[in-house]
Structures are given as structure tokens and as C-alpha cells.
Amino acid sequence: MFKTTRLLAAAALFSASAAGIADSGTLAAPMYLRGGFNGWGLDHPLASKGNGVYEAEILVSPGYHGFKIGSKDWSAEWVIDPSAKVTIAAGTSYRMQARPGPEDYLFVKKTSTWRFTIDVSDPAAPLVRAVQTGTPPASTADPHRGHAAGSASEYRIIDGTSATVRYSTPDAAAALRSYTQSTTMALRDPGPQSTTYREAADRPTVRSGSLAFDALFALALDEMKRNAVAQITDGNYNGAAAIDCDCFETGEKWHYVWTRDLSYAADLGLAMLDPERVRNSLDFKLSGYRHGIARAPQVAGSADGRQIVQDTGSGGSWPVSTDRVAWALGAEAALNNLPAAQRAPFAARALEALVNTLENDRIAAFDPASGLYMGEQSFLDWRDQSYAAWIVTDLASLASSKALSTNVLHYKALTLAASLAHDSGDLARSAKYAGWADALKRSINERLWLEDAGMYSSLTAPHFDGAPLHKFDWLGQALAILTGVADGERARRILASYPHGPMGAPVIYPQQPGMPVYHNRAIWPFVTAYGLKAASLHANVSVADAAYDTLMRGAALNLSNMENLEWISGQPLLLDEQHPGLIGPVINSKRQLWSVGGYLGMVIGNVFGVSVSGSGIKVRPFITAKLRRETFGAASLIALDNLTVRGKRIKVRITLPDATTKTGYYPLKTITVNGAAAAQSIGWEQLPDNATIDVALGSLQQGDQQVRRVVAAPYAEGPDVFGPREPSIAQGTRAATLRIDANGNGAGTVYNVYRDGKLIAAGVGTGDWRDHAAPAAACYAIEAQFSVSGNRGHHSVPHCTGTAIEVAAMVDGVAQPQVKDWGKPGERLRFGAIRIAQAGEYGVQVRYHNGANQINLGISGGVKWLVLKDASGRIAAQGVVQLPHARIDKTGAPPVMSTPLHTRLTPGLYALEMSDFYNMSYLQSNSTFSAAGGAEGPSNKFDVIGARLLRLK
């Protein structure tokens, strides 16, 4: 349940019949055992055993596995307790309820077979029971037997243990080899401890003198081929039936195309190797509006609305999440690699999609006051893994925060749109987007750069605070370097400052307390690959060596390019028996597409140094002394053969200097193409159809060897690598005096006070703290900080001292305590008269509840247009407000607040009105989605309780 952009659709409460149980005590429709142990898929249907009893048997690996009983399209799902997760005990029967809720859990210590029994003989009280039925026998066969050549590598695992990886091939001299790879490390998922794969005539090969290096490149290419499919599927789309698409699926457990996964994978390496399939996949992630949709006047772009799809996710998708613009990375890579005849039509589609996306993002997600775009961090989309714990009850606050990664992606999308518009002859549009990009780059550097940390803040606190947090993520830092948002000096500081554990760089830092491994406490290979690209660009040898080690080690030990790894041990699963709720990674897929792209990009783009642009190719290998010594050993030459780019076949040969025990890297010395001297950048017209590029490397250079190393015990949550919990401001706090509650933080923690996003007091204790310069109205937030490490936590919920004016919703001129299910396209809603007595800055919000789906799912987040007018009819404020999905507790639907409109008001009477905008459910691509906003039509509805005008200053 943690792939929040790709998992279950929620549903309303069900009766027994609606849940798929007939009155006779049998299943009226097929139901499935679905969980982390099978990728939440349909591989384990419940088979009838008679008398209302159904069973599914599954081989389960060690771990703490979430699961549910669900129908094919998730229109029905069963959990034990809809209000909380339950860890089941073997052999115990539990009553299930036919309603959505948190998944239940099964804890497994050793790979074993489990039988799940479902008893629906009493339709009103279905029961579930799980028992262990056996363990698989260990294989004694040697998969390498009879092979002529082989090698072995040993890796330290954890607590002094080690694992051995062996490689072999029947014929090392063969033009196309077959490889067998085995590991003694326990794999994440049940299966053999070895795998066999082959090189192919239509794919590149590497010969490096290292059987392991050659094999792992072939493994990544084999996994790319296995991810290349003719049909894709997802339980939430098309009734779970296959969809024809010559596309890349996302991984072994994810059989759909997801915008960000695809785009990062394409940018890292896949677009060079299969640009047509990348183009097809990118096209699949474009959509126009559904037929018959009446477009609101404020919506921008072309009439058909073809734009980039934001996948299902937090709060109901866009614009809570706005990283759909990652599509630009994949599109640019595809355009650079497509054959000439295919580039122009795709460039036209790309420009149209980017224009429609960028224009509407500018309306719905851009904050003119900060010059930044709002929205969730890119790919870090499991909220409590990387946000404050309180954010799950206030997703509007998540939506209004600004993330480094998402803003850098917007910068990239703007620069690509400017370039495509220029090429199309639309110089005015090109200048417009180039201007927006320049301004955005300035704002990122002014608002998010933290001089004391030498890095960019990953995200700001939400509205009514807005301070950049001392939270950091490796993807955002790397993208800032690679796009040029960070200048050379800042890039060097980032590379030297970002913390690395013994197995490489975690995706976030510091880690979050009380959270299992997934984004938290994790290495993601695709993020490491972007870090490697950034390190190579600025010749940081230590960071590059760490990335090379991470990527090769992960693929070697796991027999696959995994989705993620625990960051201290490098394991695909850290089994913490004392704290089962912290076990993880909680979900992990083999041949994850962006991990595959990252590995291929490491070999082709970093080791051999080949990159592609619209004008030609560039050759800039980054081979460190450590890589040359430990990976290539006695070899004097390494070669990449049969790389085909734009129809030209390329072979790259690099002559290696003698190995040394020193550290550094070997800069480029000379390049020849078919024997003739060439520059580092080679234009397409200078590149023969069959080109042999010979590279000679120069003398060892020291480069930059700064890297920040941190060490921690895998199971410990200490202040050295974790951040503190966010504190709170106690209820009953007076206007100028804050009562700071530690919220579980112990000794060695101090607190920093922010007023309106500015630090006004540092290092204070808990209890009462008085602001002696308190203005008439302000918003305060508290940040906890560990004294010993300096690591900081997220900010508290803001506490605002200004007057709040509550306004009722009106229907036919009559005030209503609640307007249910409001928001159909074309509907307008007025609120009661507003009298402003004091001039000042105000935040205008709608009080609402949106129960269309769970907080981590769907496409039905509320997105509306709010207008505030004065007595003369002049517009005092207008813009999009977001009303994301909200949690429902046992007592009903607690109201929450929308994102605010900020405006300065003078005393007088005002009128407030809300009308339609659009969300992702308005797109044709979501017309088969199984939950709200899908097959039954767009959903942009919620319950309105009223509105609030909060004085801020």
C-alpha cells in the first residue's frame, strides 16, 4: 500500500452483497489475496473449498507484509479493522469488514508457504485465518557447473557477515555471451539464488576484462528488454484488463506506465537505447479532456487540453502533486535520440502538451509571492515518510509547500518549452517561457539555498509559515546541479555536503523517526544514478566512487536492479524483529525501470562517457582511480560495442592508464573517430554510420575528494542521523506567549521559533516563550533541533494569532451549516456577507471535507476557483484553491481547510464565490479509473462547511 501513485482505489462503505458476498454465503464475484508479498496483484485468487470457504496459498519472503482481500478492480476490499492496521497471528481467525481501511499485516521470519483461508459462510461476518504450511527446500545444484570462465566477488553484509556473488559464462570468447549469476545473500522475494541471461545482437555489449562488469551490463539490458511490453495492466484501470501499448512497464511488480518513473528512466539511459518505445510511453502519459466537459473560463491552453498526466496520488493527485513536469526530461531525451522522421511530429506534440501543462500549473500551483511552484516533492510521495507527521490530517498544507525537486523540474520544463517554441518559430512564446525559467531559477536560489548547510532545502514549510526547512533530498540536489540551477561553486558545496552512509547516499536526510524503510532510511538506485551524473560533471571523485559502488553492489547481490535498499546495510529487506513496524523497504520490485535506466546510464554515460544532444554526441568518460583499479584490474582497454544512436553504429574503446593506489580521476586526453582526431563533441554530420571512437585518458588528477560520511547502527534511531519529532504549540496559547510542547523529544533537544516564516529565536527550551515584539497578528511555528548533531525536524502546525472571520455557505440566499456533495462542473457557491473591520493581510480558505478517496490515492482532489469581491464588485482576490482528500475517523468527517488565497484588504463589505476549475478526473485517460472520478464521470465534489478569513498581518 505504499506505492501511493499506483495502488488501491478506495470505495464507499459496503453491505455484504456490495462487497461480493452472496446471501447464500458464497462469493458473488472473484476476490483475491493482495499484498506486499505479491505486488498487490491478482496472482492469488481465492479458490472455493466448499461451504463458503475459500483459500489462497502463497510463498512469502521474510518481512512485514501489508495485505487486503480485494476484488479485481478494488470496488470491494476487506480489512480486519477499518480504523487501524492489525498484525495477524498465525492460526487465529479474525473477523473482516467489507470497507476500505489501513491494510493488515503478516510478519514472516523465514521464507515459507502460507495458506490464507477466508470463510464467508456467514455473509455478515467473513473470517480470515493464515497458517504456515511449509518451507521450500534449498537447491543443491551448482548453476555454474560446466562453464569455462568464472569470477567471484565477496561483499560485507551486516553484523560481520558476508555474501558471495559468482558469475560464469560457457564461452568467454563468444561474440555474444550467456551469463549465469548467483548470490548467497537472501533475496527479497522467494525464488532461485541464481539467474541466467544473454547478450543479444540488437543490444550493446561491454568487454572490460571484468566478467562481473560485463555481466551486470548485460543483466540491465536484459531487464530493459523484459520491461518492454506490448500490453500494460493496472487493477485501477480498464477493469484490470490489458491495454495495448508498446511501452515500458515500471517493474516486475508494477505493470503500468507511470509518468515520473518513465521520465526519469528515459532521461537516465533508456531513451538512447529504445527511443521509439520511450516516445510511445511518453505519448501514453498525455491526455486531453473528456468529451462533453464544459471547460471553466479560467482554465488555460488549447481547446482539447492535451497535457501531461499527473498519476493518482496524494490528496487526489494534481495539483497537490505537480511533478508531472518530469515528463520534460524524458521528452528531451527522446527527441535527442529519435530518428529524424519521428522527431518533428513528437516535438509538436511535446510543445502542445508542455504549453497546456505549464499554463495551467502557473494558474493552479504557482505562488507569485515566493516565485516558486507549490506541490509535493517529486517521487517522495508517501507523506509521513518525508513530511511532518501532522500533514496527513492537513493535505492542503502539503499542497501549499514548495519542493526543490518539483521546482527544478518546472525549470527544466520551461527551458524545453522555450527551446521547442523557438524551433517552431514562435519567438514570443519562447521568450515568455525563457523569462519564466530565469525568474524561477533566481527564486530557487534566493528562497531555498541554505548557506549554513551548503545545500538547498528540499521543501518549505506550508502556508502561514513558509520557511525553508533543514531537510535535504539527493534527487533535488542532483537535479539542481544537472540543470544548471546551481552554479559551479554551489554544485561543489552540495556534493561535498550531502551525507553518505557506508553503502551510499540516502534519498533523504536526516531520517524520520518512527518510520519504516521506504523513502525514509533508503537508497534508491535511480537517485544514486543522478548523484553520479552530478558528481561526474564536477569531478567529485569520492561521491562518484560511492555511487559506482552502490549501483554495482545492488545489482550484483540482488540479481536484479532493485527498486530500493536500506541505506545503512544496503539490504533489500532489513528484518527488525524488535520493531516489526519499522521493517523495510516495505515494498520492493525487481527490474524497476528507473533503476535499470540508471544502471545503463552509469555504464554508457559515465564510464564510457557517451551522451546525446540534438546536435551530436559528446564523449566524456569519468573513470576514477578506484574504478580502474578495483573493477577493471589488469585490463589495458575497455570497449562498448554495437551502440546504435540515430541509426549510427558506434564502438567506444578506452585505453586505460596503469592502475594506481592513489585517488583521483583520469581526464580525457585525446579522441579519434575511425583514426582521425576529433573533438569531445562530435556533430551528427561528422559521425560516420559505423564509427569507432578511440579514447586516451590523461594523467591522474586529484579532482574534488570531499564527501560527508555518516555512520549509524542499522536498527538505532539516534540523533546522529535522525531528525527530532516536530514539536507542537499547546492549546490555549496566548497571543504573544507560546507554550512549546516537546512532543516526545528528550534531553539534548532545543527549539527554534519562527514568526511568519522568519527565525526570531534559536535554542530555547520547552514551556512558555514570550515574543516581546509580537505584532497585532502573526503566525508562529516551532522547530526542534538536536544539540549534538544539529539535525532539525519539521516545523509544528502554525499557530496564528490574528482574528478569524467565519462565513457560512449560502443556498438560495439561506445560510447552510453544510452543503453536501457540492462541486459539479458549472456549479457556483456563494457565501455569506463578509465585513472586514481591520485593514491587513488575510488568508481566505474554504472549510470542507472531501471523502471521495483515501488520502494517498485517486484523482478526485477538489480544485476550484475562488473569487473575493468588494462592495463595488472589484476583485480583491481570486485564484485556485485546493481541497484534497481528507481522512474520515470513527466519529464521521472532521472538516479541514483548503489552501488559502492571500490578499490585503481594507475595511468594508466583501462577497465570496466559488466555481469550477478542473482536476485529473477531467482527462480522458482517467475515464476507465475504477474509483471516484473514473468510469462514472469526473469527480470534483466535496462537502462545504463554510469559509474563513484569517488575519495574518
UniProtKB/TrEMBL annotation:
Residues 256-553 form the Mannosylglycerate hydrolase MGH1-like glycoside hydrolase domain. InterPro entries: 6-hairpin_glycosidase_sf (IPR008928), 6hp_glycosidase-like_sf (IPR012341), Ig-like_fold (IPR013783), Ig_E-set (IPR014756), MGH1-like_GH (IPR054491). Residues 1-22 form the signal peptide. Keywords: Signal. Gene3D superfamilies: 1.50.10.10, Immunoglobulins. The keyword Phosphoprotein does not apply. This is Esterase.
